[in-house]
Amino acid sequence: MSVDRDRIEAAVSEILAAIGERPEREGLRDTPRRVADLYAELFGGVGDDPADALSSVFAAPVAEQAAAGQGSVADAGDQPVLIRDITFRSVCEHHLLPFEGIVHVAYVPGDRIAGLGSIVSVVESACSRPQLQERLTDDIADAIERGLEARGVLVVVDAKHACVSARGPRQTRSTTLTLAARGALAEPAARAEITALITAPRSDGQDWGVDR
């Protein structure tokens, strides 16, 4: 879905006038255009299905073996794929202020696996619209479950919100944590195993979370 830049420019000019500014003054003259360019980038995913971002999908090795008569997908057990520390930014739909942080995605493949870049693309697509963190977490999990027909999915999002840090109580260090689990990874033991992998020490010595 394309963004109507002309309407955004007109709206931004009206907002500037509404707060008592002069949109035509030198420092603000190009601001409506800049905001229109920014919004085109931030909201380019409105109307898109994040599952469509799974552009690189391959047969899972166990599925290929099963097709060759060398066992079945079930023989592999619930072997998860985990991608940690996917950075993201989105915009809260309540105040149109940014929130950003880290996404961790785990899934148990069925017959198909995704290229690692495709998982990142799913996250970026789900973020590129006015969002709530809770819905973002579900959108990513649902897209991977549907797009790959995964046997299990777990998504953890840890984010800082400008609507918390820049207004009201102004909690500059607090973060919000959300989790969505589907299928095999909704089982408590499986969730605990993935959480342990997510929080395991990094090779670079960094802790889990956003600017703790």
Description:
The radius of gyration is 21 Å and the shape is elongated. Helix 1 (5-18) crosses helix 2 and helix 4 (116-127) packs across helix 5. The strands form 2 sheets. Strands 5-2-3-6-7 form a 5-stranded mixed beta sheet, sandwiched between helices. The chain is an alpha+beta fold and 212 residues long. The protein has helices spanning 5-18, 31-42, 61-67, 116-127, 133-148, 162-165, 188-199; strands spanning 57-59, 81-92, 98-108, 112-114, 130-131, 152-161, 176-183. Strand 2 and strand 3 form a beta hairpin. It folds into 2 domains: 5-41, no CATH class; 48-199, GTP Cyclohydrolase I, domain 2 (2-Layer Sandwich), CATH 3.30.1130. Residues 63-76 have low confidence and may be disordered. Helices cover 36% and strands 23% of the residues. It has 7 helices and 7 strands, in the order ααβαβββαβαβαβα.
Fold blueprint:
Blueprint: H1 5-18, H2 31-42, E1 57-59, H3 61-67, E2 81-92, E3 98-108, E4 112-114, H4 116-127, E5 130-131, H5 133-148, E6 152-161, H6 162-165, E7 176-183, H7 188-199
CATH top level class name of the largest domain: Alpha Beta
Percent helix range: 25-40%
What is the makeup of the main sheet? 5 strands, mixed
Strand content: 15-25%
The CATH level-2 architecture of the largest domain is identified as 2-Layer Sandwich
Q: What's the arrangement of strands in the largest beta sheet?
A: 5-2-3-6-7
Tally of helical runs: 7
CATH homology superfamily of the largest domain: GTP cyclohydrolase I, C-terminal domain/NADPH-dependent 7-cyano-7-deazaguanine reductase, N-terminal domain
CATH topology of the largest domain: GTP Cyclohydrolase I, domain 2
Total of domains: 2
User: Whole-number radius of gyration?
Assistant: 21 Å
CA-CA gap between termini: 37 Å
